[in-house]
Specification:
It is a single chain. Helices cover 43% and strands 5% of the residues. By secondary structure, it is mostly helical. It folds into 2 domains: 41 residues, no CATH class; 57 residues, no CATH class. The protein has a two-stranded antiparallel ribbon with strand order 1-2. Strand 1 and strand 2 form a beta hairpin. Helix 4 runs antiparallel to helix 5. It is elongated, with a radius of gyration of 27 Å.
Length: 131
């Protein structure tokens, strides 16, 4: 007989028990398969292994003003797109300038692209409106 921790109250109980004698938490029919991950969840505290858990997501609001300033000063490097979360656009602008920048055409293409973006783009990469 092995001892396991109850996922609800974290007390040691038999692996053959169908419910915890202390709190009454049902353990199911496969108690011998109580894994290390479940033990870690049980050790996290009462109520952490059962029921829906609330997860709070914190998003930082991107500033359109900072986006425009970055575009004006560092637009040729795509820094404003990295700031807004458009990583693909930023990499494309950076590569165009690095590869074609030796010829003036690279700067012209990216410069026009940046000017259009500064007037058109109002959301970040996640689709949230920039304030």
């Amino acid at each position: 007989m092995a001892l396991i921790n109850c996922p609800e109250c974290n007390k040691q109980i038999s692996d053959k028990a169908t419910a915890c004698p202390s709190c009454g938490c049902p353990l199911g029919s496969k108690n011998s398969g109580f894994s290390v991950d479940n033990a870690k969840l049980a050790a996290a505290g009462p109520g952490s292994a059962s029921g829906p858990q609330q997860v709070s997501v914190v998003k930082t609001a991107k500033s359109r003003g900072i986006y425009i300033i970055l575009g004006l000063f560092f637009g040729f490097l795509g820094i404003h797109n990295f700031y807004a979360g458009y990583f693909g656009r930023g990499v494309c602008q950076l590569l165009i300038v690095l590869i074609l920048g030796w010829f003036v055409i690279g700067f012209i293409v990216v410069g026009v692209w940046v000017l259009i973006e500064l007037f058109v783009v109002s959301t970040d990469g996640a689709g949230d409106k920039m304030v």
